[in-house]
Amino acid sequence: MQLKKQKTKDKGASAIKEYSLAYRIWKYRESYQLIFPFMLLFFLFTVLPVLSSITLSFTDFNMLSMPNFVGFDNYERLLLDDDIFLIVFKNTLVFAFITGPISYILSFLFAWLINELGRVLRAFLTLIFYLPVLSGSVFFIWSLLLSSDAYGMINGILLDFGIIKEPVAWLLDQNTLLFSLIVVQLWMALGTGFLAFVAGLQSMDQSMFEAAAIDGVSNRWQELFYVTLPSMSHQLLFSAVMQISASFGVGTVIIALAGFPTTQYSADTVVTYILDVGTTRFEMGYASTLAVVLFGMMFLTNFIITNLLRRFSAE
């Protein structure tokens, strides 16, 4: 009886040892050694800057003297005293909730349509759609198209057809600036998420479509909703994260086409405002506060979207 109890005790101790953290780390030590370089770089260049930014958001720091702790003064200034922040916050939401969903849907739609073509034509069209992301002269082309004088291509066409009577300052007028930049951003939106959709569609198991046809799926739209979308949950999730980051992080296109800052901050986003506050005014403490707020917006949106997609894939 005592021997039996001892065996049971040893078995329990062995189970605890097997499921302990230290034991699992030692058991899979080769795997941890492989991911260690990435985790080190991730900590140094992602986690550490985020933690530093959160810390600096509670200070008054001008990069010339040591940070001075001011508590929640920066957050109080942001919410109660900064009228410019309200403008750029609204612009950021406009960019995010217009360019984000539209570019996400267009990325999948174009990838789905291209997937139906032959191999050579599919590869060519994939390159064409992805080319705006690769091209370094894209902003120069759009600056010619949206030029504010009569020699601008869009103004010239509209003047020739009598649609407008005088040139429109697309990138200067507060009434047209934001709309013009949204159009350019949508044109450039087929990025990494688009390639993920193309790769996901190419790697799908064709036997699932045969099984679906036996079960009663009779057209391509039913295949899309009952087979394709549920089978691409990982690509849908990855592309959603990439589109959220891109839509909340719009800044390069604004600076390249409309200047820095734009007219009365009418098209600036939180990203460009952070650059203005941090690199022009050298208010790094307040710039860190803006960065923390932007991070919170992106995190919350990403959390909501990814949970919705997980529920969709589970169903």
Layout of SSEs?
Blueprint: H1 2-19, H2 21-27, H3 29-56, E1 59-60, E2 68-69, H4 73-81, H5 83-115, H6 119-134, H7 138-145, H8 153-160, H9 177-187, H10 192-202, H11 206-214, H12 220-231, H13 233-248, H14 252-258, H15 270-280, H16 284-314
Antiparallel strand pairs: 1-2
Helix pairs in contact: 3-16, 5-9, 5-10, 5-13, 9-14, 10-13, 13-16, 15-16
Compact summary:
This protein is an all-alpha fold. The protein is about 75% helix and about 0% strand. It has a two-stranded antiparallel ribbon.
CATH homologous group name of the largest domain: MetI-like
Within the CATH hierarchy, at the fold level, what is the topology of the largest domain?
MetI-like fold
User: Which range best describes the helical content: under 10%, 10-25%, 25-40%, 40-55%, 55-70% or over 70%?
Assistant: over 70%
Give me the Rg, rounded.
26 Å
Q: Reading side by side through the largest sheet, how are the strands ordered?
A: 1-2
| Principal-axes shape call | flat
**Total domain count:** 2
Overall residue-averaged pLDDT value: 82
Number of helices: 16
Describe this structure in words.
- This protein has 2 domains: 1-56, no CATH class; 70-314, MetI-like (MetI-like fold, Orthogonal Bundle), CATH 1.10.3720.10.
- It is built from 16 helices and 2 strands.
- The chain has helices at residues 2-19, 21-27, 29-56, 73-81, 83-115, 119-134, 138-145, 153-160, 177-187, 192-202, 206-214, 220-231, 233-248, 252-258, 270-280, 284-314, and strands at residues 59-60, 68-69.
- The chain has a two-stranded antiparallel ribbon.
